[in-house]
Amino acid sequence: MHKRFRELWYDEEAVVTVEYALLLSVLVVGMASVWQMLKTAVAHAVTEAANAISSGGVTPSG
């Protein structure tokens, strides 16, 4: 068992796999953040459009 752990410790393929897993997790967290911001922005734009339609005019956003 000790020999297997030593082999895994020095195995560069395992290190590359861990690096890819970490990179993938960072990308997933980043994409989730972008998705949340995009969802909020779209909801805000739809609300502004609905308010403009219901009030009969376009109001400047600020």
Helical percentage = over 70%
Q: Per the principal axes of the C-alpha atoms, what is the gross shape? A: rod-shaped
Integer average pLDDT: 86
Radius of gyration: 25 Å
Order of helices and strands: HH
Number of helices: 2
Q: What is the tally of beta strands? A: 0
Q: Structural class, please?
A: mainly alpha
Unreliable runs, pLDDT <50, ≥5 residues? none
Q: Could you give the distance between the termini?
A: 65 Å
Q: Which band does the percent of strand residues land in?
A: under 5%
What's the assembly state of these chains?
Answer: single chain
- Biggest sheet layout: none
Describe the structure.
There is one protein chain. The protein is mainly alpha-helical. The chain has a domain at about 25-50. It is built from two helices and no strands. The termini are far apart. The relative contact order is 0.06.
Task: Detail the topology: elements first, then pairings.
Blueprint: H1 2-10, H2 12-55
Quick gist of this model?
With 62 residues, the chain is mostly helical. The protein contains two helices and no strands.
Q: Which descriptors apply to this entry?
A:
mainly alpha
